[in-house]
């Protein structure tokens, strides 16, 4: 059982405030991912939850108990660090047994828990090795195992995949998803990679500049981003944003063509968000759509992404069939599949409901 | 077959390497070797007489009064070594830990702790001689001023306290060195490892004994070895503070003083014996070299790659 409640959490380092009042609720057995660009405060928030840094302002409750002044080791929280932080002078077994023994468990229980972790993480043949004799992926598994044997209410994982090579990354990602299903604890996972966030999370917390931009399921974030930041951060390649003006039932770019859009929005200026998969390109200009010029094509085998420049200079990406060969500098028209447009306020970037 | 030819670079290296090598050979290697040779001869003052084999070694180890002198000095060195191990290295480790944890004033104390190390031994020795002065010394005056006058004593003037007074002066002088080395060792420990420990325990004791100490052990090797060599070569401080006789009554006599006195004589007894002195020097050298090697090899074995 683990329910976390963060209320008005602030963090200051000397005079610089890096977290400006975080309110968040995390339910039992949830897999929550904090995602955001570097420096957005996601790791800082994780360290506050772990208790490694003091909370400057606000309250953090775990299962209804105020945790602000509780030592990290007494919170029932285990953490997997980015660098794994294994004890270099202990072998794999000792690394896992160290924390368990400090909890006051008897020898048999420690051994039972380690045996379980070893089974889950397939660490069998590594028990007598020192960390420096392990590969990156193996160290990662030991670090997770060390957290596992403490049977914490909450697992914190700080960018656990960032030190692994790309091929290993998707394997370990699956592994972590499987572990979460198997042990069922609450997991909080920090990453700057939105693909990791989308694939792992029950709930994603998008952060930017010390604030939460949006909380929601991967689908909710993708389909109804709360603002332009979330819209462009979630999804790859990113959503393209164009500033358009409404002329009757059409949205137009100055000297750059227009599209018919059925919207009841009455603002004159809007930001229009377009996902690459909703955009179609047509050769030639003059017909329906925004005018654009092809910049380059990324060929990915099963499809291709074509980057085009609109009349106002915005770069826009479109997913096309792999054999639609668009040549650089070719003039094209851009249209949008019906019902896929995202509208944001031109002033503050908030989502507008059409 | 490569030709041995003096290229410009080779010449340059030779010019740089030969002078220091010559210096070392002349002032270190040659004296050690000649001391070995001197130890096997009978001497009258600075005049070399007959070859007498191991006679000198036998005399300093087994013939009275040399035997008790040697044993007394050696025993004092052993005391000095263990006392400094605790007072200098032990305290150094604790100081390093406090500095590393950034307790208030750490920036100031980082400099303050190391400052005495830079002072010359002469200055430290005279300073502490003044401190320990029975009437005007700061130690006794402080004790009297806080009502502990009954603790005031002639620190350097009685056998029971003299050696310990010197040890404390020495520890104060050099404590900054192990502190600095340990501190450097601690600063090499990655921050996330410390965070990982904090997730598992808040006990400073467990952190120190189970994580920090094992991880700074590599620095301990050099500190232990140097302390051992220093303790058994100890000379300047007792020489200045207690004199060549290890007064009072040999209570501060150490091998360094004893060797010097035997080889070169002293003010009160002008007798000098190069043979016995050299025999002592050789024994000290062999002892230090052997034990230091063992310490280094043993401690090396448990060093850890971070």
Reconstruct the topology from this structure:
The complex is a heterodimer of chains A (354) and B (306).
Chain A: E1 4-13, E2 16-26, E3 31-35, H1 42-50, E4 57-62, E5 65-66, E6 77-80, H2 92-102, H3 107-121, H4 136-149, E7 154-158, H5 166-183, E8 186-191, H6 194-200, E9 203-208, E10 211-216, H7 218-223, H8 228-233, E11 240-247, E12 250-252, E13 257-260, E14 269-274, E15 279-283, E16 289-299, E17 304-310, E18 315-320, E19 331-336, E20 342-345, E21 351-352
Parallel strand pairs in A: 3-8, 3-9, 6-7, 7-8
Antiparallel strand pairs in A: 1-2, 1-4, 4-5, 9-10, 11-12, 11-14, 12-13, 13-16, 14-20, 15-19, 16-17, 16-19, 17-18, 20-21
Helix pairs in contact in A: 2-3, 2-4, 3-4
Chain B: H1 8-38, E1 41-44, E2 47-51, H2 55-62, H3 66-100, H4 106-118, H5 121-131, H6 138-145, H7 159-174, H8 176-187, H9 191-200, H10 204-232, H11 236-242, H12 255-264, H13 274-301
Antiparallel strand pairs in B: 1-2
What features would you describe in this structure?
- The model of chain A has no long low-confidence stretch (mean pLDDT 88).
- Chain A is 24% helix and 35% strand.
- Chain A has two domains: 4-233, Rossmann fold; 240-352, Beta Barrel (OB fold (Dihydrolipoamide Acetyltransferase, E2P)), CATH 2.40.50.
- The longest helix of chain A has 18 residues, at 166-183.
- In chain A, the strands form three sheets. In chain A, strands 11, 12, 13, 14, 15, 16, 17, 18, 19, 20 and 21 form an eleven-stranded antiparallel beta sheet that branches. A six-stranded mixed beta sheet of chain A has the order 6-7-8-3-9-10, sandwiched between helices. Chain A has a four-stranded antiparallel beta sheet with strand order 2-1-4-5, covered by helices on one side.
- Chain A is of the alpha+beta class and 354 residues long.
- Chain A is built from eight helices and 21 strands.
- In chain A, helix 2 packs parallel to helix 4 (136-149) and helix 3 packs across helix 4 (136-149).
- Chain B has a single domain, classed as Orthogonal Bundle (MetI-like fold).
- The mean pLDDT of chain B is 86.
- In chain B, a hairpin with a 2-residue loop joins strand 1 (41-44) and strand 2.
- Chain B is mostly helical and 306 residues long.
- A two-stranded antiparallel sheet of chain B has the order 1-2.
- In chain B, helix 3 (66-100) crosses helix 7, helix 3 (66-100) packs across helix 8 (176-187) and helix 3 packs across helix 12.
- The A-B interface holds A 47, 50-52, 71-74, 77-79, 81-89, 98-99, 102, 132, 146, 150 and B 190, 192-193, 195-203, 206, 210-211, 214-215, 304-306.
